[in-house]
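[Automated response] Your request has been received and processed.

Submitted sequence:
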Amino acid sequence: MSTRTPARTSTPPAERTERTLRGSVRRHPLTWFFTLAYGLSWVAWLPYVLSGNGLGVWHVTFPGGAGASQLTGVLPGAYLGPIGSALLIIALTEGRAGLRTWRSRMTRFKVSRRWYLAVLVSVPLALTLASAALSGDGPAQPSATVLLAFLPGLAAQMVTTGLAEEPGWREFAMPRMQRRLGPLAATLAVGVLWGCWHLPLFLTDWGGGPDVAWTEPVEFVATATLFSFVMTWVFNRSGESMPLVMLLHCGVNNYFSVAGEDLFPGMSHADVTHAFFLASLAGAVVALAATRGRLGLPERQPTRTGAAAG
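Generated structure:
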């Protein structure tokens, strides 16, 4: 009497590919995040880089001048890259639980009012002091237009720059990088990657391009890296409050967009870049010295294996 061996069912190639891809994303979420953040943003920015706002290869100009054209030329790629990649990776690797954690950090508004006051005051103060040191002159009296536009401008920055970038770089990447590398190495890595992500934009109006000296993007990446130490400290000390981190980031953009030229009319674009570098350097030194390099990350408590076994 013979027995039949059950026939083996083969997995369709498309299903095998899906399983392999999903498994790769789960094993290497950070690698996939950084790859997608760069790839999606840079591809989406290509029309802007090639247009009349950039290299001029494509004879189309995004309307609105150097400022307003960024809403249509830069912002879609910024949204598609960091925040889009982060949500995709979280959905694939952690499912609904991961998305709930992401939402929890993104809506963590309940921190001490002193934090909000400190960020709102310290950012313009530090940038004003740095600008004054470089210009050799004090700030001018701010106009009524600047005073009226400052808070609305900050709100606009929060839902554009802040929402596009920080849910990826700080909310997704930073906790995972800190668990693997510690606060110093994680901040250094994320800071450099965050800064380099902007590099194609130096070929456009955004970065004063297309003909910029090589020192300008290098200084920008160095500044972004130094500023990241301040952002990591605020992120850790505030209990990973993303609204506060976004406010810190957007405070810098808003200062230079709304108030900088009005307060220091004689400063050049290079002077503005140097002022941000100087303020970021001072902030990084203070954050590192005050926290002895921990940047607000609590020390890991040793596990009591003996007590657990007993």
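Summary generated for your ticket: The radius of gyration is 23 Å. DSSP finds twelve helices and no strands in the chain.
If you did not submit this request, please reply to this message.
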